[in-house]
Amino acid sequence: xxxxxxxxxxxxxxxxxxxxxxxxxxxxxxxxxxxxxxxxxxxxxxxxxxxxxxxxxxxxxxxxxxxxxxxxxxxxxxxxxxxxxxxxxxxxxxxxxxxxxxxxxxxxxxxxxxxxxxxxxxxxxxxxxxxxxxxxxxxxxxxxxxxxxxxxxxxxxxxxxxxxxxxxxxxxxxxxxxxxxxxxxxxxxxxxxxxxxxxxxxxxxxxxxxxxxxxxxxxxxxxxxxxxxxxxxxxxxxxxxxxxxxxxxxxxxxxxxxxxxxxxxxxxxxxxxxxxxxxxxxxxxxxxxxxxxxxxxxxxxxxxxxxxxxxxxxxxxxxxxxxxxxxxxxxxxxxxxxxxxxxxxxxxxxxxxxxxxxxxxxxxxxxxxxxxxxxxxxxxxxxxxxxxxxxxxxxxxxxxxxxxxxxxxxxxxxxxxxxxxxxxxxxxxxxxxxxxx
Length: 437
Known about the structure:
Blueprint (H helix, E strand, L loop, with lengths): L8 E7 L2 E10 L2 E9 L2 E4 L2 E4 L11 H32 L3 H14 L5 H10 L17 H6 L9 H12 L5 H18 L31 H12 L13 H24 L3 H6 L5 E2 L4 E4 L2 E3 L2 E3 L7 E4 L2 H10 L23 H14 L9 H12 L4 H8 L4 H4 L8 H21 L1
Antiparallel strand pairs: 1-2, 2-3, 4-5, 6-7, 7-10, 8-9
Helix pairs in contact: 5-6, 7-8, 7-11, 8-10, 8-12
């Protein structure tokens, strides 16, 4: 821009029968019009003429209007120059990575509708150093923001990102954790490269290497007998501290009801394969005993009711063993209507997932079982189905997996001897066919 102030022309306009001055000028090839104010004019045979007397406050005669028009034009030039300076600075230095990252988080929730748990997880990875975690007593290490936060996003190189990844790896975290940070930074740059966002020139993460993660061990899972041992331990209250006896009969009854609920929840997890969030969101109306199905419609995510992980509704078979568990669980005084939660606290609200995990671990240890996670109850479901020879595609459908490769992890549960027998039958048929020909 030249920065020269254009000469503004005066134009008389009329609104509601009253005249006012308008400044009109051209700047950078565009016509600009700005209202000045009421004109000190009166109607005449040939149009408008100056009114007699002293100009009252708030009105403009021709001389005053010219001065104001010049001021308006100068202000327009100053503002346009400032906008150009900001844009030039943005192009030269770029917005800081922190701003791009925060915009990505907002877009993830508002536009993409990411689950609350995903948003909370990413927000924690992008938190400043020292920010407390939402669960537990830990604090954010702030690896990403410490390395990249203040840096202009457009100037960050692959070397910068690689240095950040090496710094994270040097703390002793797993390769999977390093890759998780890498994937998030890559997603932020992909978002920032859009013309509709920040127009970043490239994604420097593409110039870095993904860490090699160790091969996963075969999924550990419980047998149906072990599931029952775990459920009975919770049902009997073996996970509770014996030194903390209930203070009265009401508290004793509440504990017994909670223990029976937790045992039913454990059995449901192992015999339906529902994720923890899906279990906590399950309502009585989702259970169809006549058709032997459970409809999975929603999940609790970061304490909020949300969609399932895949965003799709699915149906899960209801075996007789689980139907009996749920029927007995519904035999309670409150919260038994179709809209009520199957597994709820004494107020009818969702069970606290963190507290449930702690009780699960205590029950597991009290029962002397292997140290499997609560989520391994879902793997227990898939592995037991695969071991029984259920078709993988069917397992994929009932578990809500997006890809068959995820379901194939349960093939390890099928005895090799059984597979060998199946292969033997195939080759026997082939051999017989060759002989016949």
